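User: Teach me something about this protein's shape.
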Amino acid sequence: MHIHVLGICGTFMGSLAVLAKELGHRVTGSDANVYPPMSTQLQAQGIELMQGYAPEHLQPAPDLVVIGNALSRGNPAVEYVLNQGLPYVSGPQWLADHVLQGRWVLAVAGTHGKTTTSSMLAWVLEHAGMSPGFLIGGVPQNFGISARLGDTPFFVVEADEYDSAFFDKRSKFVHYRPRTAVLNNLEFDHADIFPDLAAIERQFHHLLRTVPGEGLVIYPADEQALQRVVAMGCWTPVQTTGEGGQWQARLISEDGSQFAVLFDGVEQGEVRWSLTGQHSVANALVTLAAARHVGVLPELGIAALSQFHSVKRRMEKVAEVAGVTIYDDFAHHPTAIATTLDGLRKQVGDAQIIAVIEPRSNSMKLGAHRDGLPASAQQADRVYWYAPANLGWDLAATVACAGNPTEVCDSLETIIAGVKAHAAPGTQVVVMSNGGFGGLHGKLAKALAQ
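Assistant: First, the predicted structure itself:
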């Protein structure tokens, strides 16, 4: 079968394309923005990529068109599909029908940490010899690929609350029907489709309604929004993590790179890894709880986590030039920015941290999180914010009250000049964006090398 994927370079759709290819289909795809790491992964898989959404990409007609949620009415490819009467489906629906049917699905949902936690969980199962399938919105470094079918009933999926398609406004995760459901955390996000936090909580409750009574729901005990979700009705056993939960961590090092794991008050072992931050410790606890549900003993899960290498673009060290370390990070919400910088600060002590941040997500463009931005970067010694011409609100006015040296730039060249002027041996530069950021990481490294 020839399947054409519209929006193929999105992290979810690109992973789905890999699974379709593994199932034996001929897979092609179109996207407006073709950039790594997804573009290189797809090309390595022998999947043909086309720039833009020209109707000609759908000639001769494929057997099925899978339409990504970034596309809407008015898109030339979408209009062609509808006018020609071509068969089409949303990505989550295709995944549910052709990959997840009949499998033990472990779904990882939440505002933050979905990609890292689902990568951890897939790795823990792999380390235990369970050869899981997975679909992850990033490239886990332990696997080098964002999706695979796997050889056993177990399948780990990053379960996103964003909508499924222009014709299906339910959250993606409602399609997945997990037996093990991890709810990492819950904050307001996706202001382009949700009016308020209560609307997102309702979608999370729709997910809970699909988890069988013999399954398991896992969430942090102190997350108030998730407490409200569970209070709406839960027909499944629950395990909690963190303060007041059944799964707890006792920090051995302040930066979270070493901690003991306790289950029902009994120590299970110690995790020693390269990750930092309280958020990473929280991700580890829900991972161990989910893995135990499918039969992985905590001590085996802990051993696996000590060999976990995180995900591309999640505090990924991409260069070290003239003593300056450059990280690429996906953080694009004030909470994620703050927790990432806090983890790095605890790791590097007094070393200079320079944060370079692009407020690029749909919620950011609508200004939904702008009030939280100045405080989110306070752990950095210096902050460069990128304000593109189409941002739609005054970023400079928003961050003017920041307590640390802060500059708003309208070009990458200005950012590079600023970082170059202030970076010294030992400086840690964190570049944060949920897009390609114009290849800034490579340009910075090149400028520093000169």
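Now, about its shape. The chain is about 30% helix and 25% strand. The radius of gyration is 22 Å. If you'd like, I can walk through any region in more detail.
User: That's plenty for now, thanks!
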